[in-house]
Amino acid sequence: SDRLVECIDQFSWRRNGKFFNIGKDPRVTMRKRSGTLEIGFRSGGRPEDYEGEYQCFATNDFGVSLSNKILLRVSKAPLWPKEVLEPVSVIEGSPLVLPCNPPPGLPPPFTFWMDSNMSPIPQDKRVSMGLNGDLYFSNVLAQDANTDYSCKARFLFTHTIQEKNPYKLKVQTNRKVAESTPTFLSPSGSESSKMVLRDEQLLLECIAAGLPTPIIKWFKKGGELPGQKVKFENFNKTLKIVSVSEEDAGEYVCMANNHLGTIRHSIFVQVKAAPYWLVKPSDQVLAPEETGRLICRANGNPKPHIEWLVNGQPIESSPTNPNRQVLGDTIIFRSVQIGSSAVYQCNASNEHGYLLANAFVNVLDLPPRMLGPKNQLIKVIKNNRTFLDCPFFGSPLPELRWFKNGQGSGLDGGQYRVYINGTLEIKRAQAEDEGTYTCVASSILGKAENQVRLEVKEPTRIIQAPEHQSAIRGSTARFTCRVTSDPSLPVSVAWMKDDKPLYLGWRLKKDDESLSIPNVNEGDEGTYTCTVKSEIDQLSASARLTQRTPTAFKSRPDPPIDLDLSDPAARSVRLTWIPGKDHRSPITEFLVQFEEDRWEPGRWQNLSSYPGDLNSVILQLAPFVNYQFRVIAINSVGQSDPSRPSPRYKTTGAAPDAIPKGLRGWGSRKDNMEITWEPLLDLERNGPNLHYIVWWRRKDVEEEWNNVTTLGAKHVVHNTEIYVPYEIKIQARNEFGAGPESNMVIGYSGEDIPDAPRFFKINRRSLDTIHLEWAKPLEPNGILTGYQLKYQTVNGSKVGPFQLETFFPNVTEFFLRVPDRSSRYKFFLSALTQVGKGEDYAEESPHFTNEGKAVIFELTDSFVASGFTPTPTPFGYPSPTTISPTTISTSTTPTPTTTTSTTTIATTSTTEIWNLTVEPNSNYANVSWTHNFPPGSSDFVLEFILNSNNTKKDVKSQQPPIIVVDLIPGVVYHLRVYSHLFNNVSSKQVTFKTKAAYIDQVDIATQGWFIGLMCAIALIILILLIVCFIKRSRGGKYPVRDKKDLPLDAVDQKDQDGSFDYHSDEDNKPLQGSQTSLDGNVKESDDSLVDYGEGGDGQFNEDGSFIGQYTVKKDKDETEGNESSEATSPVNAIYSLG
């Protein structure tokens, strides 16, 4: 065939830098009025003889212009050398590379692999073709020996395909295939380099061997991969950047990993650049004595060299011109003269390429002239942007000015703008802008002018557009298109159907404002458009006509037929079908269903839906599934029967793509942690022998990962410490490899009952209020769910019924209002976890001598050592059967506190957390979450779903935390929180279980009232024994008065006036009287020891007599009102015990 080489002008050619004599070669001719060369080989000759570099030179009286160099090469498709290939023997699980090595061609051939049956070799993460055409196996499986492998080379220019003799594999199988760590098949080593030119395509490749098949990941050191430019191909083994720029240089790292290890390879990318223009020289027109310049500025890597030529010759060898100065990439012309016109060439080159540009410097003197038509009439639409053109020329360059109606100064500024090429812009044309505009170009050589007349018209409008219609078959449809326009502009109305001109014929009727379609049928359906056109504007409006068939004539569509599968791929296939009859109701949708014979044979499941105008779709499939498909057509009446099933299509297996969901760690006992997850769905398995690898390790402790492989959806870690955090992750694997690892989650080992609160403070704030305050336990042993306070009144040996208070974990104080100021209480405070109630702090409130006095019980090492460790009370206490919740809060956030007969005031300190948490009780739950909504911008909705029957309950709230009541005890709920204003902003769903209803088992031996009664009886007996002992010790003594001169009575009675009345000793014998009262025969004397208990004057003499019997007896009420803690005498000790 002939070879054509185009040239911009005619004259001469150079080949390989030398003059090419066209006249001496009969096969080469030049076309007339053109510089095109034609080389013919019909009469013989070898095209290879004409290979080389060609360049065209065009010459006239003003100079010489050059074309770019043209490289002429002959396309070649060499034969593949025949070779005998021995079967390749390989051990199962080992890597393998089958080389292709196609013969070199021009241009290089496109390679691909097929088997002897001309079927493409399926490629996946394990088997794929590299950029060099070789076929890489990351690991060989036994089934790889079931086919042969042949490399093909397609030579695009010659439209031929060459093929290599096929390879056959012999796979040596073992009972157990050994797994191996990743190694790189391509490229080799730990680092390599790559050079790429700017604006070209960058391809980086990493292919790894290993079993399981390694996963390839890419990243760039010191920065992120440019997401808009980077594409990953060949199952992530190839990184592709289409148009490279300088910022794409750097170190790229590909990482290959499986569960046995990880390797990396660094590729150092250098970006070079062939020259590219920054400023390209352009033609110059100069008048005599003017100054000008040519600029040739280019960039590249390495920086290009700039070379100037004049008329095709280096500027250094051209005749000297004193008016011209070369300064690197710039030529400056000063005071140019007539006759110095020439064509200048700029050549910018480096080792990667070159640029060539011609610039004609024309020196002439020419008076101004107008280049456009004379006296134009321009019509424009009102309010439109308008341009009035006035092309002109002259040397030197004339000055241009615009005038309106021949008056005033030049137009420029405001709504006018004059461009350098002479165009006048009117930004928004109005009626007052009509008139005659004159443009005047002037220079020292003269002037020229031209006129443009402007008319401003009203726009054309459609005031009644056609509307969509649905017409019954056989009726008449009418579309209206009413318009208004400028009176001076005639308009025409044309109708189109489905964007094609509408043929009216004898049935359709059209008038100035409407289109009528009588006797509507199916062929009339479509989109009708009326187009209104004037001389200077046009607009259109459309409406759709559909035909309605009476319901009585409609029915379900027939099922599709002739299902066909094509374009098979690893995870997709094309399904094509022929739609059935729609029975007067158009098919709006096709439903594609599938059935597979491995997991649920015989069960048809929905795959996807497609619009009713499609009958060929690409189905996205899961690996390792044997599919068959059927199609159901849907119209307004209903669904068709299913089509007949398609042929079966089996997808190849692959490593899992999915990550098991719902990974969590929790303790079912205090010394274990159960790791659970949701198993993959059947269609997510992607291959046989699905199993899971679970990793765990203590959080915040330098500990190696523990792991286990299991087939189930649960693993129990034993012998753990109580409630410690663990990091957990999981990965699904099958015979084809490992899936992606999950994100790390935090789990906790089992909880236990908590320790007692760290301290317990009892403080009397006022006469009728007791303030209780406590601190969290030193060892919560889990998540605190709250605190439980039981208390009862204590009045000597009498105790009142128990009252119960429960608090949320962030409540650490309680105000108790007491009805009786003299009441004393016994308190039992314990912390709660999900496991149960911890140790009780059992303390009794003391008698307060002053308001505000506090008693603090703190759980410290010294406190425990001193014997005051809080211990459970020796007697049990019954739980109340009914607890009515009431809430009185002193904080801004409502905090409910449950109570019985007393009123409570609880103060809370809100603790912020950054996830959705639920602290459930039996019939209520404390819910808290965090959010980043501005205050007051949105309410929140709590969605509770009952696990047993999926019943849903919504609770609206403003800010966390909140308490949700009326829950069912002992059941499982699913909860999520979402924004009431933005429903798509939602938390993750959490699952919790409410506690079972709590019922105490009453044991009399552990009840408080029984313990109190026994203690009171023991105390009374002790008092009686001590009194008896004292009176016996006084029995042998005589009264003091026997030693005095004055006779005194044994008892000093005080009269009302404060004097004492003395009686004889014979009337009263106090010691004997006291002893007798113990026997129960004689009434006890009023002069008892108890009456003198608090006096402080009751002392014994050396002989044992009691001097205090002569002191004034204290008032009984006063003694009871001042309970001294000092026991200076046996009498005092007895009273304080009472």
Give a description of the structure.
- The structure is a single chain.
- This protein is 5% helix and 42% strand.
- With 1138 residues, it is mostly beta strands.
- Among the domains are: 63 residues, Immunoglobulin-like; 93 residues, Immunoglobulins (Immunoglobulin-like), CATH 2.60.40; 95 residues, Immunoglobulin-like, CATH 2.60.40.10; 84 residues, Immunoglobulins (Immunoglobulin-like), CATH 2.60.40; 92 residues, Immunoglobulins (Immunoglobulin-like), CATH 2.60.40; 82 residues, Immunoglobulins (Immunoglobulin-like); 86 residues, Sandwich (Immunoglobulin-like), CATH 2.60.40.10; 84 residues, Immunoglobulins (Immunoglobulin-like, Sandwich), CATH 2.60.40.
- Strands 2, 3, 6, 7 and 8 form a five-stranded antiparallel β-sheet that branches. Strands 9, 11, 14, 15 and 16 form a five-stranded mixed β-sheet that branches.
- Strand 24 and strand 25 form a beta hairpin.
- End-to-end distance: 132 Å
Low-confidence stretches: 1-8, 849-914, 1036-1138
- The helix content, as a percent range, equals under 10%
Determine the CATH topology of the domain at 179-273.
Immunoglobulin-like
**How much β-strand is present in the residues?**
35-45%
CATH architecture group name of the domain at 179-273: Sandwich
**Tally of individual helices:** 5
